[in-house]
Amino acid sequence: MILKSKRGLILILSSPSGAGKTTLAKKIERSDRNFKISVSYTTRTPRTNEVDGVDYNFITIKKFQELASQDKFLEQAKVFGNYYATLKGPIEDNLAKGIDYLFDIDWQGTEQVKKIMPSDIVSVFILPPSINDLESRLKKRDEKNKELINQRMKMAKDEIKHWKDYKYIVVNKDVENCFEQITKIIKIERELRSTFNQIN
What is the pTM of this model? Predict the structure, then answer.
C-alpha cells in the first residue's frame, strides 16, 4: 500500500445574503490553520468597513475583463450589476500542497467550481431559520436602502431554491451551533479523503 500525500479540499459555503456565511467562514479560518479563505475579486465599491486584499480584491471592470479573457478565473458571477470571481492559479497550486480552501460564493459559482474540480469540493448550504428572520438581519446591517433590501430578499428566495444541489444543509439559528456542525462536516470529509488515499 502506497500512502499518497494529502490533497487539500475546497469547502464551499453558500447562503442567501444575511444568513451568516461570511461570519462562519471567518470563524473557521481562525480555528483551523490549514484553511485559507479564498478572497474574491470584485468590481463593486468597498463598504466602509472593508479592506482591499482582505475582504475582497477590488479591481476595475477593465482589469476584471482582462483577467476573464485570459481564463484566469475558476468561477465568476454578476450580482446587482457588479462582477465577482475567484482566481484559479493560487487555488490549484495550494490544493496540491495539501492546503484547504474556504469559498464564500453563491450557487452559480458553486456550479462552475463543481465542473472544474468535482472531486475537490465539499458544498454546504446555510439556511436562515426563516424568511422573516433573514429580512430582520438584512435590516440590521448597514443596508439602509429599502429598495436594495427588497432586491436582496427577492434574490434570497431564488437562492434558497438551490439548497438541494449541495451535499450538506445547515440551518444557522445559532452561530456557535452552526459552526460546530460545519466543523464536524470538515472532520468527516478529511477522514474520507485520508481513507481513500490509503486504499488507492
Answer: 0.81
